[in-house]
Design goal:
13 helices; about 325 residues; about 50% helix; about 10% strand; globular; two-stranded antiparallel sheet; alpha/beta; Rossmann fold; 5-stranded parallel β-sheet
């Protein structure tokens, strides 16, 4: 009886161990990418790990505003600079900190672009429980990646290229002016500030220049947030580019350049913001053109695929805008 009990207990422990360990062995970055299981919140960790070592010079952090506003393939075509958008859907600033640590373990980016929207999303303070959780995830990847089965079912509409979401949807924003000058400041929570300074220290330690930017978004930005972010940047000696106050200069058209009523940009809007940010990076950051280096062949292959996909998205945007104009003309006539 005693032997049977020991065998049962041993079998149970073995079954639990195999249940936790074996899936973790399968859910490795290369495997997840091969079988398209790397979407969703945790996907960025697996995708960034399979990028060729020391091949990325610009890393973009943030939530969904980041991967809807910056196109690495456009930056490559225009300047020959390599970049990656390591944005996380619904990210808190602590998520960006964890992503950046993963980036620096494999890459040596010269510039880190931080999209600022999630500085206003409450981040619980770092504590012993959070550290313990990260330690467990490191040893049991299955617990971190357990929800990847949902990924093929929950992909955002569009296609991903180096983290950027190519999206041809159009849903206009018609709410009018949203950046009304004010002297008020939005609150940035203390835990968020601590993680922000953690990101800054990581950049300083690894020789990367941190640049803050805010993507055009009537749903997420106003002048109170602009004031808070401007002061935060000045106190830390950082550059801050608020594309919301430059929306007119960028010629953002809220009838055609947003996919969801002013929350996120679509491809048309992202092309405009990337053009501006690319020019800014070229003029203010010491980046090296890689068109004649070993990474060029891979990037040029990706660029060809990207152009095919963007043509489809551009046609979709044009068609929707053309249909709406015809409807308006018919109503007027």
């Amino acid at each position: 009886m005693k032997k049977k009990r020991i065998l049962k207990v041993g079998s149970f422990i073995l079954a639990v161990a195999l249940t936790l360990v074996l899936p973790g062995m399968f859910l490795k970055p290369k495997t997840m990418n091969r079988f398209h299981l790397d979407a969703g919140r945790v996907g960025v960790f697996s995708r960034i790990k399979i990028e060729p070592k020391n091949s990325i010079d610009v890393v973009v952090l943030g939530d969904s505003e980041s991967y809807c506003s910056f196109s690495p393939m456009q930056l490559w075509e225009d300047y020959g600079y390599t970049s990656y958008v390591a944005g996380v859907p619904g990210a808190k600033i602590g998520d960006n900190y964890d992503v950046l640590k993963t980036v620096f373990a494999r890459q040596k980016p010269k510039v880190v672009l931080l999209e600022t929207n999630n500085l206003f999303r409450y981040q619980p303070p770092n504590n012993v429980d959070a550290k313990t959780t990260r330690a467990i995830y490191k040893r049991l990847p299955f617990l971190k990646y357990h929800s990847v089965w949902k990924s093929p079912l929950s992909r955002a509409k569009g296609a991903m290229f180096q983290g950027f979401n190519v999206n041809g949807s159009v849903r206009p924003y018609m709410g009018g002016e949203y950046m009304c000058p004010s002297t008020e400041r939005e609150r940035i929570f203390s835990p968020n500030r601590r993680y922000f300074h953690g990101i800054l220290r990581l950049c300083q330690k690894n020789g990367a220049k941190l640049v803050m930017y805010s993507a055009p978004s009537p749903r997420n930005y106003n002048y109170k947030k602009h004031n808070a972010l401007k002061i935060l940047a000045e106190k830390n000696g950082l550059s801050y580019v608020d594309l919301n106050v430059k929306a007119g200069r960028l010629e953002i058209d809220w009838m055609s350049d947003t996919r969801d009523h002013g929350d996120h940009l679509n491809l048309a809007g992202a092309q405009k913001t990337t053009a501006f940010l690319g020019y800014y990076l070229d003029k203010t950051c010491d980046l090296t053109c890689r068109r004649n280096t070993g990474v060029a062949a891979r990037w040029n292959r990706m660029l060809r695929s990207y152009k095919i996909r963007t043509k489809k998205a551009e046609h979709s945007i044009w068609k929707k805008m053309n249909d709406w104009e015809e409807e308006v003309d018919n109503e007027v006539l």
